[in-house]
Amino acid sequence: MATAAHSQAGAPVSIGTAAQRSGVSARMVRHYEGLGLLASVPRTEGGYRQYGESDIHTLRFIKRARELGFTMEDISELVGLWHNRRRSSARVRQIAQKHLGDLEARIAALQSMQQTLAHLVHCCHGDSRPDCPILDDLAGEA
C-alpha cells in the first residue's frame, strides 16, 4: 500500500493532467487509487482529486510494472517496497525472480503450442478433401 506523502513541488494537477503525464488512463488512475496502489489524494472543496508529482511518479512506476506483466498483488508489494527507503532488495529480487520463472513457463507453453500447430498445419493438405488433421486433433481423434 502506498504511503508516500504528496509532493508539494509544483501545483497539484487534475486527474486528467495526471493521467496524461503518467501515460495511465483516468479510469485506471481511479482504479489504482481504489486498490490502494496510489495513496489517497487530497480533494478540492468541489470534490476534485488533486495529484502531486509523487503521485504521477507512482503512476509511472505502476504502468512500467504492468508493462512487465507483474500481477496487481506483486505491484502492490513493489510499490510499498519502493516507497520504503529501509527496504531490503532481497524481497524485490524474489518477486522479480518468481515473475521471471512464470514468464519462462508461459513462453515454453506458447512455444509448445506453436510447434504443435505448425505440425498440424504442415500435415493438412488444405484442399477439397474433407480429411483434416487440424480438426481431427481438435476433436481428440488424432
TrEMBL record:
Cellular location(s): Cytoplasm
Chief location category: cytoplasm
Gene3D superfamilies found in the cross-reference section: 1.10.1660.10
Any one of the GO BP annotations: positive regulation of DNA-templated transcription
Keyword entries, A-Z: Cytoplasm, DNA-binding, Transcription, Transcription regulation
GO molecular function: copper ion binding; DNA binding; DNA-binding transcription factor activity
Name of protein: Cu(I)-responsive transcriptional regulator
Protein source organism: Xenophilus arseniciresistens
Organism taxonomic ancestry: Bacteria, Pseudomonadati, Pseudomonadota, Betaproteobacteria, Burkholderiales
